[in-house]
Specification:
Elements: H1 22-36, E1 43-47, H2 55-58, E2 62-65, H3 71-81, E3 86-92, H4 93-99, H5 101-110, E4 115-120, H6 155-161, E5 166-171, H7 175-187, E6 192-197, H8 209-212, H9 217-220, E7 221-224, E8 231-232, E9 238-243, E10 246-251, H10 273-279, E11 297-304, H11 310-324, H12 330-334
Parallel strand pairs: 1-2, 1-3, 3-4, 4-6, 5-6, 7-11
Antiparallel strand pairs: 5-11, 8-9, 9-10
Length: 343
């Protein structure tokens, strides 16, 4: 059966600030769901607390708005008990990587078949502008009026370090590539993280502008596509090569460089080492804002490797054990030993 974007829109108006990147991400999610062709009745959206965590109200699917940092715990329970459902988790950089950080790394380690949409605006928006785990060192905010003295998490580094097998990155306003990344996440069997670079117009306006502004985006980002050479730039004349252990940006046509010399993206390579190098391009320990002017930020699906999933493994184990036991139900178990009746 085919669906349209409207089939996944609830009757609730979106209550995000005007101009917030969350509007675009909501549209991308609804569009991706429609193109996937999975019925709303087979879809669930689970969230924690934060601006982005209002998303279950705006989706015409099953959903649950849980408590701060615990969306992944609830999503884990749902997916394990109903592995046939397509389960999305919507979370912000604070909700997911601070109070929910423990659940995040173990969702990766267990490889639970969840589609995690991580809204990264590098700020706590709902609670009015405190710095978050992804805020760049030195950020001036409500809770760091003289600038943060902490180094940020890079979501990709945390995901892959916890043995994550799928990581993608997209820009909030880039609907086309956001939809493709989300669809790829659903097609992937296992924990899939899509980091959305979102803009908070109230407390962190322009936080990603050094890579997302239309005047620089073509030269500051590269869209990775599996099996295709790594080309980018406004004139499509830049590319990436391997120089020893390092990734290096080159100009096609200079020093005899041709398209055949460029790296070809392999998202399905089992060893995550090179995927991590790609995901960390342009970052420094202090954040990514212009950290390396010679390398672009990687967008698209960076890693997509299949591995056994926790939810199906648990259910297979249950069926295996049930096949070896005479007791098929709780009642069978309770009546399996010595019993007596009190009158």
């Amino acid at each position: 059966m085919s669906y349209t974007q409207a089939d996944f829109k609830s009757d609730q108006p979106l209550k995000f600030c005007a101009g917030c990147g969350d509007h675009a991400v909501a549209a991308s999610m609804q569009k991706a769901m429609a193109e996937l062709g999975i019925a709303p009745s087979q879809t669930a959206v689970i969230s924690g607390i934060g601006c982005s965590s209002r998303m279950p109200y705006y989706m015409n699917t099953y959903g649950m708005h849980t408590i701060h940092g615990r969306g992944l715990a609830v999503a884990t329970g749902l997916k394990t008990s109903r592995p046939d459902l397509t389960v999305w988790n919507v979370s912000g950089d604070g909700d997911c990587l601070a109070i929910g950080g423990n659940h995040f790394i173990h969702a990766m380690r267990r490889n639970i078949d969840l589609n995690i949409i991580l809204f990264n605006n590098k700020i706590y928006g709902l609670t009015k502008g405190q710095y978050s785990p992804t805020s760049d060192r030195g950020l001036v905010s409500k809770s760091s009026p003289w600038g943060t003295v902490e180094d940020p998490f890079c979501p990709a580094e945390l995901c892959l370090g916890a043995r994550g097998n799928f990581f993608a990155r997209a820009i909030d306003a880039d609907i086309k590539n956001s939809v493709e990344a989300m669809k790829a996440a659903v097609h992937h069997k296992g924990a899939a993280v899509v980091e959305m670079l979102c803009n908070c117009v109230i407390f962190a306006d322009g936080i990603h502008k050094l890579v997302t502004d239309s005047s620089v985006r073509a030269d500051k980002t590269i869209l990775l596509e599996d099996g295709k050479p790594m080309i980018y730039g406004k004139n499509r004349d830049k590319g990436l090569i391997l120089d020893g252990w390092d990734i290096k940006s080159v100009t096609i046509g200079e020093n005899g460089i041709t398209e055949k010399d460029l790296l070809v993206h392999d998202a399905k390579k089992a060893d995550p080492t090179f995927h991590l190098k790609l995901a960390m391009m342009g970052y420094s320990p202090y954040g990514y804002a212009g950290a390396d002017d010679n390398l672009p930020i990687a967008l698209g699906v960076i890693r997509d490797v299949e591995a056994p999933t926790y939810d199906w493994a648990v259910n297979d184990q249950i069926e295996d054990v049930k096949g070896k036991k005479k007791q098929r139900t709780l009642r069978d178990l309770l009546l399996s030993g010595d019993t007596w009746e009190v009158k």
